[in-house]
Amino acid sequence: MKKLKALVLGKSAISLEDVEQVAVHGRKVSLAPAARAKITAAHRFLLKKARSGGTFYGINTGFGLLSNVRIDDADIEQLQVNLIRSHAVGVGAYLPDAQVRAMLLLRAWNLCQGHSGVAPATVERLLDFLNHGIHPLIPEQGSVGASGDLAPLSHLALPLIGEGHVRFSGKVMAGADALAKARLKPLRLGPKEGLALINGTQFMTAIGTLALLQAEQLCDSADLIGGMSVEAMRGTDAAFQPEIHQVRPHPGQIRTAKNLRAVLVSGGRSEIAMSHEDCGKVQDPYSLRCMPQVHGASRDALSFVRGVLEREVNSVTDNPLLFPSSGKILSGGNFHGQIVAIAMDVLSIAMAEIGSISEQRIEKLINPALSDLPAFLIRQGGLNSGFMIIQVAAASIVSENKTLCHPASVDSIPTSADKEDHVSMGAWAARKALRVTENVRRVLSMELLSAAQGIDLLRPLRSTKPVEQLHALTRKHAAYAENDRSYHEDLKRLECLLESPELKKLIQGVLK
């Protein structure tokens, strides 16, 4: 991948693609002078207020139910350190580095906007972690998604003050050791800085952003693979003609139909299509014929999710918020993750449907009564079982997704002695949305292997250029099955292919 210029925080809003470039591809990050000026102005305003003798939540008070406890000025730093330590109670597996990097970026950008009151050095240290590759160990469980993602963000913050653990240079080590190796000093926290570091939606938003970007590419892949399945089953492209979709003009449906036409009629009808022009079939099964209506509905749902995340990554979600221009410090609830939680549940449902209809196309491909291909896509059936269990495995994943699609956002358990009496469960909503998306990638890899086998079984007939390109790319990673073999490694390689730049390049060339 071409080396990217550093992302400069403070020049303009950041995009979801910016998040991916920093999180996945290691793009460096710097701070614009305008952002530094905002941070400095808010920090000076906060210090002035703190010295005024007034009582301000999270600045010189306890937290939650303890917000009525006034803290002595001499204990302000200890208050912030104690907050981070006491809230770092996450459990479970540690997040992969890409998710941690997305969190670091989003936390830094949240603090850059001049409403949090932290010192410039605090934001700079978050950027140091990104640019040095210091990745805090953050357990995946422990957030209810209101008052923000407190537990995971506390684990992110601990190494900033020289505590906790990180991955650095390929090794797990104490946060203090990583700081020493990178020649960085532990932060000393001023008023509100601990609270500003852990109050927000950056855990659910980071995971949700990476899940959405994967989901969007998988929707394009599903159109391309689904088109190959149509050809392998000698289906018709009639259901994808524009007149049908113009009278039900949902954007996703129109786009999917256009994509399928690009796959199936690009450069003229294929030899496979022409070979069955006079067959007795009238209509194809829904899993073929209704791809625009099903894939399209998922596309429109993902469009909603994108809008939510684009706004959320550029929002300020800690509390209380500072407004230096009006002289106000206001307590509110921007840390509440309900909007993200609902969007993540929508993402789960949208992607589960892509997997569900894909599994049904696999079932049709292996069923000789519906495909007119050899049973289980193998010539010597009986001696060979062929692709029988590929469909079984796909069915198991689709069933798992149905369970994962139970909405997290409708749940709430009061916490913090009933002070936080409605929570979003957005962290779990995001985690399971990513899991559903990864499951769908596995199902689509199974359909890709099956559809490519179907095309081979129709040789010497040739398909359209896009289908042949996809077939050739598939065969680079998984050979035609003349006899039984374990397909486990084939599917692993095809899963990787579905995330790869080479498939993305093919998609961009075909689905213009």
Summarize the entry for a quick read.
This protein is mostly helical and 512 residues long. Helices cover 56% and strands 6% of the residues. α1 (16-25) crosses α4 and α3 crosses α6.
Describe this structure in words.
56% of the residues lie in helices and 6% in strands. It has 512 residues and is mainly alpha-helical. The protein has two domains: 7-200, Fumarase/aspartase (N-terminal domain) (Fumarase C, Chain B, domain 1); 208-510, Fumarase C, Chain A, domain 2 (Up-down Bundle), CATH 1.20.200. It has a three-stranded antiparallel β-sheet with strand order 4-6-7. The protein starts with 6 loop residues before the first strand and ends with a helix.
CATH class of the largest domain: Mainly Alpha
Helix content class: 55-70%
Give the SSE order as H and E letters: EHEHHEHHEEHEEHHHHHHHHEEHHHHHHH
Shape: elongated
Count of runs of 4 or more consecutive helical residues: 21
Spatial extent as radius of gyration = 26 Å
The end-to-end span amounts to 22 Å
